[in-house]
Write a structure and sequence with these properties.
This protein is α+β, with helices and mostly antiparallel strands. It has helices at about 25-75, 95-105, 115-120; strands at about 90, 155-160, 165-170, 185, 190, 205. About 30% of the residues lie in helices and about 10% in strands. It is elongated. The N and C termini lie far apart (about 95 Å).
């Protein structure tokens, strides 16, 4: 039987080299670089998805307003004029008449008192129910105004003023000439305008 007087001479007792734990600086930098590349690729995708969702939300919001206008016309035989002589009307700064005409109530829930609204809707019939999400929140520069999903208060409605079921390019005043359609078959159209070309807002034309 072979004996060993020193543990280093025994194969079973020799220390086995151990792999050093942790990552090398090169490995860490490689991981960081890969994560940075993935983030750079995903941010534009996430932004596009978010913007598409906001556009679709705005289109849905404007479609509901158009439905309320059609309900008003079906009931009264004409679209609400909102006190304007032209065919186009910007909601910005005109929340009161818009809300009271379509709901018969003020922003505070009390019966409508606006003269134009009462002229258009003297019976205070309700054609639409607004939610708090449709108004700019506290702290927003446009607090209390109706805004689209991008926070844009420039929501415009254009209606058929001739009674022939057609809206023409000449009926637009706010929409730039190069964006105006020749004709639109229908009586009422809403769109989100961006006259100041604010980079946070978008032109959303519901007929495109």
């Amino acid at each position: 039987m072979t004996t060993y007087s020193h543990p280093d001479r025994c194969p079973t007792l020799r220390s086995v080299p151990r792999r050093r734990g942790g990552f090398t600086i090169v490995e860490v930098l490689l991981v960081v670089a890969v994560i940075a590349i993935l983030i750079a690729l995903l941010i534009p995708v996430a932004t596009t998805v978010r913007d598409n969702a906001m556009r679709n939300k705005t289109r849905g919001q404007l479609a509901q307003y158009a439905t309320a206008y059609e309900a008003f016309r079906a009931d009264r035989g004409h679209y609400p004029s909102m006190g304007t002589a032209g065919a186009e009307f910007n909601l910005r700064g005109n929340n009161t008449v818009f809300v009271e005409t379509l709901t018969g109530r003020g922003l505070d829930g009390n019966p409508a008192t606006n003269a134009y609204a009462l002229r258009a809707n003297p019976d205070r019939e309700r054609y639409y129910t607004f939610s708090a999400a449709e108004f700019a929140p506290a702290g927003d520069p446009h607090r209390g105004e109706i805004v689209d999903a991008f926070g844009n208060p420039n929501i415009v409605v254009v209606t058929d003023r001739r009674g022939d079921g057609v809206v023409r390019g000449a009926d637009f005043q706010i929409l730039p000439a190069d964006r105006r359609p020749d004709t639109l078959m229908g009586g009422v159209f809403f769109y989100a305008a961006n006259p100041g070309e604010n980079p946070e807002w978008e032109w959303i034309l519901t007929w495109e």
